Amino acid sequence: MPFTYGVPSVPTISRVLAAVDEEMLSISLANWIGEIINTRGRQIAIDGKGLRAAAVKIRDQKTPYIVNALDVTTKLVIGQLAILEKQNEMTAVPELLSMLEIKESMITIDAIGTTERIMEAIHKSGADFLLQVKGNCPELFEEIKSLFDGLAKEKSEDSEEFKKKNKEKYSEKKGEEKNRERYEYRHYQAYHDPDNLKGIQEQRPYIKSIGLSKQVRIKAVQDKHGTDITPSLKDFLQNGSPKQPKATTSDNIDGDVQKFGLIASQTMNAGEMMKTKRDHWAVENSLHYVLDETFGEDKCTIKKGKNAASALRKMAYNIVRLVQLLNPDRSSLVPDIIDDITDDFQLGARMLFEAVPSFY
């Protein structure tokens, strides 16, 4: 930008950001995007992200966190909320939800969001949820696992009778893909039967469907000639691979083999659960990765104005996404869009100072 006396120094920028009302800035972010896209009836992925370099290095201070809400379809950030010193994600998420218009939307959160308080907040907002169940909810996870163990036993004893009895209630879906030099295998099971879910629904009446997922990640292996010699899924589970030891076959581990439960407030089959869960990770792949790799968020040492700086990054990020959405012929790479805006600042300025076509 053509500043008369040059670009302000980092301390100057830091002082300005520290003076900004960060809460009002976050509300402005939500209002701005709320005028452009209808946040009702969408899939909204919510996840927390640390600002690592902004942590105070004395007195054992924790890494500050921001909870972000992303519209999965457009990849636009629709809201953010800083987690205060005595808060955590479980208490901050309901507060963020109250700032957004989410009626009829599908809210997806990782395992930290599986609490009665968050489920109730989503339900009261007129939205639905698909939430992950891991070791943070051991009793619920065991209930889900036990129910699917019983279904597996029924199926093995009389598969035809099982299909007849559970035709509309039980489903499975498998998927595999090569992603970033590794092979990923997924197996989802889903079940919805009011009679068999009474125990689970007794304390959590919003749950309509449950699921169980097993995911395996195998690093690609090549021989000295460059030929792919990655073991099959069966061989990997039995023997491991040259790059990975034999996988531990236990529940709820965070390594190469992961098993977790799912709960949904809608009637969902296995394919729908798999797709929704996969789409949720846009918050990691399309937002958090870009914030760190392109905008350098994880390396930013601003402390007093860190939350305002984070909101401004989201605004800059959204400008890039809007340029992509409104100019589909342009390159899809974020750094290329930033270069285009640097060469022609009016391209970005139009997103702020002129009316942006509505996506309603």
Report on this structure.
The protein has 360 residues and is α+β, with helices and mostly antiparallel strands. It has 2 domains: 10-133 and 294-353, Nucleotidyltransferase, domain 5 (2-Layer Sandwich); 138-263, no CATH class. The chain is built from 13 helices and 9 strands. It has helices at residues 10-19, 22-34, 89-99, 116-124, 138-157, 159-166, 198-203, 233-239, 270-280, 282-293, 306-326, 334-343, 345-353, and strands at residues 43-50, 65-71, 77-82, 106-109, 128-133, 170-178, 182-191, 209-219, 257-264. Strands 3-2-1-4-5-9-8-7-6 form a 9-stranded mixed sheet, sandwiched between helices. A hairpin with a 3-residue loop joins strand 6 (170-178) and strand 7. The longest helix has 21 residues, at 306-326. It is globular and about 80 Å long.
SSE blueprint and pairings:
Blueprint: H1 10-19, H2 22-34, E1 43-50, E2 65-71, E3 77-82, H3 89-99, E4 106-109, H4 116-124, E5 128-133, H5 138-157, H6 159-166, E6 170-178, E7 182-191, H7 198-203, E8 209-219, H8 233-239, E9 257-264, H9 270-280, H10 282-293, H11 306-326, H12 334-343, H13 345-353
Parallel strand pairs: 1-4, 4-5
Antiparallel strand pairs: 1-2, 2-3, 5-9, 6-7, 7-8, 8-9
Helix pairs in contact: 2-11, 3-4, 5-6, 11-13, 12-13
Q: Can you count the helices?
A: 13
List the domain count as a whole number: 2
- Within the CATH hierarchy, at the fold level, what is the topology of the largest domain? Nucleotidyltransferase, domain 5
How many extended strands?
Answer: 9
Structural class: alpha+beta
- As a whole number of angstroms, the C-alpha radius of gyration is 23 Å
The string of secondary-structure elements, in order, is HHEEEHEHEHHEEHEHEHHHHH
Regions with little confidence, pLDDT below 50 for 5+ residues: 250-254
Corresponding CATH architecture of the largest domain: 2-Layer Sandwich
- Sequence of strands across the biggest β-sheet: 3-2-1-4-5-9-8-7-6
Q: Mean pLDDT, as a whole number?
A: 87
